[in-house]
Write a structure and sequence with these properties.
CATH architecture of one domain: 3-Layer(aba) Sandwich
Protein name: protein-S-isoprenylcysteine alpha-carbonyl methylesterase
Number of strands: 8
EC number: 3.1.1.n2
CATH topology of one domain: Rossmann fold
CATH class of one domain: Alpha Beta
CATH superfamily of one domain: Alpha/Beta hydrolase fold, catalytic domain
Pfam families: BD-FAE (PF20434)
Strand content: 5-15%
Radius of gyration: 27 Å
Strand order of the largest sheet: 1-2-4-3-5-6-7-8
Shape: globular
Distance between the termini: 96 Å
Keywords: Hydrolase, Membrane, Transmembrane, Transmembrane helix
Low-confidence stretches: 6-45, 327-333
Number of helices: 12
Catalytic activity: [protein]-C-terminal S-[(2E,6E)-farnesyl]-L-cysteine methyl ester + H2O = [protein]-C-terminal S-[(2E,6E)-farnesyl]-L-cysteine + methanol + H(+)
Length: 340
């Protein structure tokens, strides 16, 4: 009875409250449901703003790092002459560059700057086939650039060509020197591969057909990633991806024995002090040399975990001489590397 009295008292108080003006349901719908055109405009404006902001941030980053790099390198005649030669070479190739740049920035089949990690430049570009009616094979590409000027967009021509043959291409970006050293580069590429292995199915890729390839410095970084990952697995360490997920590795004009290349790079303009700074000191050259790493007796079990390896090198390569091409000396491996 007491509860019934309380309820009656509350109902009486509610009935004395002022009544809010009623709003027709049609007006409510008009205010709550903007047209699809408005939604599209807002989305496009937001997307365009993000693109502009990202481009501005990358331009600022590259400019700042360029000046920082100049403070390391100085303005020696080798760098000046090579820069002028590169500028002339780029001018001659400009018509082709324009075509590829137009495809890179405007093709709906290119997914630019997909984030794969928390560090600066932890982004990758995806090049998708025009028609994805079944899971497609995937090529993960790590570009070169002397560990200094590598950038994911350098792989746009490769991405365009392979995607036209029903292959998905993921071009991984990574921190360059002086933004990062070789340890940072290896960490970034490993994280990018992990993202591809776990997420490429969402883009129509086949996670059971992933191939890794790298060119020049990218080949060195990729091979370091593979060997170090195999060593971790052989020791039973927790890993976010497995070397067994990589069907094959293609190394193009790579450097696999760093101690043998210090003097060569110094004579080519990548001065010893700079190169050793990139590689975290002379004492670290061996632990970032895949050829030396696989010869270590403690790595014997890891060698058997490596995927099929194909190494390609030009006979007239002057950036990384042919005699530095590593056979990786996979003693006891049933699937030794194929050298071209």
């Amino acid at each position: 009875m007491e509860n019934q009295g309380d309820t009656a008292h509350l109902l009486a108080r509610v009935s004395t409250l002022p009544t809010l003006p009623s709003i027709p349901y049609s007006n409510y719908q008009r205010r709550r449901k903007p047209s699809s055109k408005t939604k599209s405009t807002i989305y496009n404006q937001g997307s365009f703003s993000r693109e502009i902001g990202h481009a501005a941030a990358e331009t600022y980053l590259i400019t700042r790092l360029s000046f920082k790099l100049l403070s390391y390198l100085g303005l020696g005649y080798r760098w000046i002459t090579r820069f002028l030669g590169l500028a002339l070479y780029a001018m001659l190739l400009m018509p082709g560059f324009i075509q590829v740049a137009f495809y890179y920035f405007f093709s709906p089949l290119v997914r630019r700057s997909v984030v794969y990690g928390d560090q600066p430049r932890n982004r990758l570009d995806l090049y998708l086939p025009a028609k994805i009616d079944s899971p497609k094979p995937v090529v993960v590409f790590v570009t070169g650039g002397a560990w200094i000027i590598g950038y994911k967009a350098w792989g746009s021509l490769l991405g365009k060509q392979l995607s036209e043959h029903d292959i998905i291409v993921a071009c991984i970006d990574y921190r360059n020197f002086p933004q990062g050293t070789i340890g940072d580069m290896v960490e970034d590429v490993s994280q990018g591969i992990s993202f591809v292995c776990s997420s490429i199915a969402d883009y129509g890729g086949d996670p059971n057909r992933i191939y890794l390839t790298g060119q020049s410095a990218g080949a060195h970084i990729s091979s370091c990633v593979l060997v170090r990952q195999a060593i971790k697995e052989s020791r039973g360490e927790t890993v976010s991806w497995s070397t067994s997920q990589i069907k094959a590795f293609f190394g193009l004009s790579g450097a696999y024995n760093l101690p043998n290349l210090v003097d060569h790079f110094n004579n080519r303009g990548l001065y010893r002090s700079i190169f050793l700074s990139i590689m975290e000191g002379e004492e670290s050259l061996q632990k970032f040399s895949p050829e030396i790493m696989v010869q270590d007796r403690s790595s014997k079990a890891a060698v058997h975990l490596l995927p099929h390896i194909i190494l390609c090198h030009g006979s007239s390569d002057s950036s990384i001489p042919l005699d530095s091409r590593s056979e990786l000396l996979l003693k006891g491996n049933d699937d030794p590397p194929l050298l071209l």
